[in-house]
Write a structure and sequence with these properties.
The complex is a heterodimer of chains A (83) and B (606). Chain A is built from 1 helix and 5 strands. Chain A has a 5-stranded mixed β-sheet with strand order 2-1-5-3-4, with no helix packed on it. Chain B has 24 helices and 17 strands. Classes of the chains: A mainly beta (83), B alpha+beta (606).
C-alpha cells in the first residue's frame, strides 16, 4: 500500500532521495505502523516527535499499535517548542 | 563574583546619578536579571502606582552569567509595571547591549522619576551622564543608534532605545537594542517614553570575573557541546524559530484570523522553505542567520525584501538586510491576520524594529480590528479609508507604519487589542490575558499553553513555562498543572541568570545551576536554583495581587472556553482551564483565590 509522509523541520533529511521538498510517497507493508515506518526511515528512536495521522494526534504509546491504511497521510514533526 | 556588585541608580527628575553596592543578600535570594530586578521593584515602588506616572520604576537588569563565556550570555531584562497590562512586566532581550552594560560595571540600572526634557543616558564605565536628546526625540530606533555612535565617536557603543511609538504612548512599545533585538512585551518601551528617556547608550571595558574560572570554563565547554549535539538546537540554527509554523499548522494550533480558526492555508508561503527559496528574479528572502552575544545557537534571521515588492519599490531606505521573520512575527503578521505575502510580513517586521513595537501585540490587535471591520462594527471611515479585511497585505503594512508613527487609525491600534475592543463595544474579541495579546499557540489545541497563558504574571505569554511535551501527547487538561508550575519556576530561575531560554532544549536546571555555582559565591545546588525561580514567580504574583489582580484575572477569552476548535487534532475541543486551574493553585501552595498561603510564603522566605 502507499502512504504519504510529511516530515517537518530538518526531519526531511530522513525521507528517501525521491522526496519532493519535505514530502514523500512511500510503498509500505499492509497494516504498517507509524513506529515501523519511522524506524525503517532511520528516525532516531530516542528522540521525541509529534506524530499525526490524517489530522489525528498519535501519542507515543499508540505509534507501534496504530495500523495504517492505503492513502493515509503521516505527518512527523520535531517536538513543539516556543519561539 | 559573576555579579559586578554595583548598581546604577538614576533619578531622572532631578538628574542625580548614584552608584550603590548591590544588595548581596537579595542577590543570594533572587540571583540576578529577572529575579533580582523583581525584588528591587517590589522594594522601590507601590504596585498600585500608575504605570505611566514618574513613580513607576524602570529597571534594566543583567544576570550573573551575562557577559561571561557561557553560551547565549547576552541577555538582560527590563522590569517595570507594564502599561499594557497593569501587571509586573519582565521582557528580556539578547543582542550585545546587556553584556556591554555589565562590562561598564553594573548589574542593574534603576531609572526613577521623569526627565524634565527628552534625554538619553550615556554610560561609559564610571562616566554616567544624562544628556538632552535634542533632535533624537522623534527619531526612529535605527537613526537613534546610528546618531549616538557618531555623537560619541565610538562605533562600539551599544544602544537600547525607543521609537516614536514609545514616545507617543503606543501601549506595547518595546525597548530595542542592537537595531533588531527587543525587550518586546507589555509596553516596557512605553514606560521609558513616559520618563522622557529616549535611549541608554552603554560602553563598558571592565569585563566580568567568575569565582572559579577553571571549573567554569570546563562547564562552558561541556554545555557548548550539549548545544552542539542537540537536534532542536541545530534546527533553530538552520531554520530559525519559524520552523514551528509547519508543525503548528499540522497540529491545528496555529491561531488564524483572530483565533476564529486554528489552521492557515498559507503557511507554505511564509515558512522557512519560503524564506530560503530563490525566486525567478534571483531574490531570496533569507540572507543569513545571526547570533547574539556569546551565542552558539544563532537562531536570528537576517532577511531582505524584494526590491520589486510594493512595500519598498520606491523606498531605498528599506533595501538593506535587517531582522527577518521568527515564528512569532510570522504568526502575528501571517495567520492571525490572514496574510501570506512574505515580503509584506518581512516589511512589517522591519517596521516593528524601526519604530519599536511588539509584533505579537500589534498583529493580534490588527486581527481584532479586522474582525471588527468584517463584522461591520467599524468601517473605512474609521480606518483612514483602508479596507481592513483579513488577508490584506497592504492593510498590514500601512497600519504597521501608521501605528509606529502614531498617526490616524494607528493611534487606535496603539491602544492594544483589549482597550480597542472595549472602545468599540466588543471586549469578547480581545484575544489575550490580563490585557496582553496571545502568542502563536491556540489554547484549545495546547491545553497546558492555555494554563500558562492564564497564569503568566505578565499577561498572556508563551515564554514563561514549557508544557509543549505534555501538550503533544494529550489534549485534555489532565496532567498539565504540575509541569506548568515546575517549568514556570525553572524558567524564572533561568531568566535570572543572563542566559537565553533557547538553551532549555539542551540544558536542564542542573546545567545552569552548575555554571552559576562556578561563577558565583554561595553553594548553588539545582534544588536551590529552582527554588529561587519559585521565589521569583511568587514575588511577581504578590506584586500583581497588590496591584489589584485576583483569581478572576487568571482566565481566557470566551472563544477559548466555549467555542470549539474547527479543525486540526483538537477539532471540537475547548480549553479545559476550569479543570486545570484549581489543581494549579493547589500544586503552587496557593489557596483557591489564587493567593499564596502563609506556609508557602514562609517556605520561600517571603
Amino acid at each position: 500500500m502507499k502512504i504519504t509522509v510529511k516530515a517537518g523541520g530538518l526531519l526531511y533529511e530522513y525521507l528517501p532521495p525521491e522526496r519532493t521538498a519535505n514530502r514523500a510517497t512511500l510503498e509500505v507493508a499492509e497494516a504498517a505502523t507509524p513506529a515501523q515506518i519511522m524506524r525503517d526511515l532511520g528516525f532516531p528512536a530516542d528522540a521525541s516527535y509529534l506524530v499525526i495521522v490524517n489530522g489525528e494526534l498519535v501519542p507515543a504509546e499508540q505509534r507501534a499499535k496504530l495500523q495504517l491504511a492505503d492513502g493515509d497521510q503521516l505527518s512527523i514533526n520535531p517536538p513543539l517548542k516556543g519561539g | 563574583m559573576g555579579w559586578q556588585k554595583q548598581i546604577l541608580r538614576v533619578d531622572l527628575t532631578n538628574g542625580s546619578v548614584h552608584k550603590e553596592p548591590l544588595n548581596m543578600d537579595w542577590a543570594q535570594q533572587y540571583l540576578g536579571e529577572r529575579g533580582l530586578a523583581t525584588k528591587y521593584l517590589w522594594e522601590l515602588m507601590d504596585p498600585e502606582t500608575d504605570p505611566m506616572s514618574p513613580d513607576n520604576v524602570l529597571i534594566f537588569a543583567t544576570g550573573p552569567l551575562t557577559g561571561t563565556m557561557a553560551s547565549t550570555s547576552g541577555r538582560y531584562a527590563v522590569v517595570t509595571k507594564g502599561p499594557l497590562t497593569g501587571a509586573i512586566a519582565c521582557s528580556n532581550s539578547g543582542g550585545k547591549f546587556g553584556a556591554e552594560l555589565k562590562y561598564a560595571g553594573y548589574d542593574l540600572l534603576i531609572l526613577q522619576g521623569k526627565a524634565p526634557q527628552p534625554s538619553y543616558l550615556y554610560i561609559a564605565d564610571d562616566d554616567v551622564q544624562i544628556i538632552p536628546a535634542g533632535d533624537l526625540w522623534g527619531a526612529t530606533v535605527w537613526r537613534t543608534e546610528e546618531t549616538l555612535k557618531k555623537i560619541h565617536h565610538d562605533p562600539q557603543i551599544k544602544v537600547a532605545s525607543i521609537g516614536v511609538a514609545g514616545e507617543k504612548g503606543v501601549m506595547y512599545a518595546c525597548v530595542i537594542n542592537d537595531l533588531h533585538r527587543a525587550a518586546g512585551r507589555s509596553g516596557v518601551g512605553t514606560v521609558m517614553g513616559s520618563k522622557n528617556l529616549k535611549a541608554v547608550a552603554a560602553r563598558g571595558t571592565k569585563g566580568v570575573r567568575v569565582e572559579d574560572p577553571q571549573r567554569f570554563m570546563e562547564l562552558v565547554k561541556e554545555t557548548h557541546q550539549l548545544l552542539k549535539e542537540n537536534a532542536g538546537v541545530r534546527e533553530m540554527t538552520e531554520l530559525g524559530t519559524n520552523a514551528m509554523i509547519d508543525a503548528m499548522q499540522d497540529f491545528g494550533g496555529l491561531p488564524t484570523r483572530n483565533f476564529q480558526e486554528v489552521q492557515f492555508e498559507g503557511t507554505e508561503k511564509i515558512d522557512p522553505a519560503a524564506m530560503m527559496e530563490t525566486r525567478p528574479n534571483g531574490h531570496r528572502n533569507l540572507v543569513t542567520n545571526k547570533a547574539c552575544f556569546g551565542c552558539t545557537i544563532a537562531c536570528g534571521r537576517i532577511a531582505h525584501i524584494d526590491k520589486e515588492h510594493f512595500t519598498i519599490v520606491n523606498r531605498k531606505e528599506y533595501w538593506h538586510a535587517s531582522g527577518g521573520l521568527e515564528y512569532e512575527t510570522a504568526y502575528a503578521f501571517g495567520p492571525v491576520v490572514g496574510v501570506d505575502d512574505i515580503d509584506a510580513l518581512t516589511f512589517a517586521s522591519f517596521l516593528m524594529n524601526e519604530h519599536g513595537m511588539d509584533p505579537i501585540s500589534f498583529g493580534v490587535t490588527l486581527a481584532a480590528a479586522m474582525e471588527l471591520y468584517e463584522t461591520g462594527v467599524i468601517s473605512k471611515q474609521d480606518t483612514d479609508g483602508v479596507e481592513l479585511n483579513f488577508g490584506n497585505a497592504e492593510a498590514l503594512t500601512v497600519m504597521a507604519e501608521k501605528t509606529g508613527k502614531f498617526e490616524g487609525f494607528g493611534q487606535v491600534l496603539g491602544l492594544g487589542s483589549k482597550r480597542m475592543c472595549e472602545k468599540y463595544g466588543h471586549p469578547e474579541l480581545f484575544m489575550g490575558v490580563k490585557g496582553q495579546e496571545f502568542a502563536g499557540y491556540d489554547s484549545r489545541a495546547l491545553q497546558g499553553m492555555g494554563l500558562g497563558y492564564a497564569t503568566s504574571n505578565r499577561g498572556a505569554c508563551h515564554l514563561k513555562h514549557d508544557t509543549f511535551a505534555e501538550d503533544m501527547e494529550d489534549q485534555t487538561g489532565k496532567g498539565k498543572a504540575l509541569p506548568c508550575k515546575e517549568t514556570q519556576d525553572a524558567t524564572a530561575a533561568l531568566d535570572s541568570t543572563g542566559i537565553c531560554l533557547f538553551t532549555a532544549g539542551a540544558w536542564g536546571s542542573d546545567n545552569l545551576a552548575r555554571q552559576v555555582d562556578a561563577a558565583c559565591e554561595g553553594d548553588w545546588s539545582t534544588e536551590r536554583f529552582v527554588e529561587t525561580g519559585e521565589r521569583v514567580w511568587t514575588l511577581e504574583r504578590m506584586f500583581n495581587l497588590k496591584a489589584g489582580f485576583t483569581a478572576k484575572d487568571d482566565t481566557l477569552p470566551e472563544r477559548m472556553l466555549n467555542t470549539p476548535a474547527r479543525s486540526g487534532t483538537a477539532k471540537g475541543k475547548i480549553s479545559e482551564l476550569d479543570k486545570m486551574l484549581p489543581e494549579y493553585y493547589t500544586v503552587r501552595g496557593w489557596n483557591q483565590d489564587g493567593e499564596p498561603t502563609e506556609q508557602t510564603l514562609h517556605r520561600l522566605g517571603l
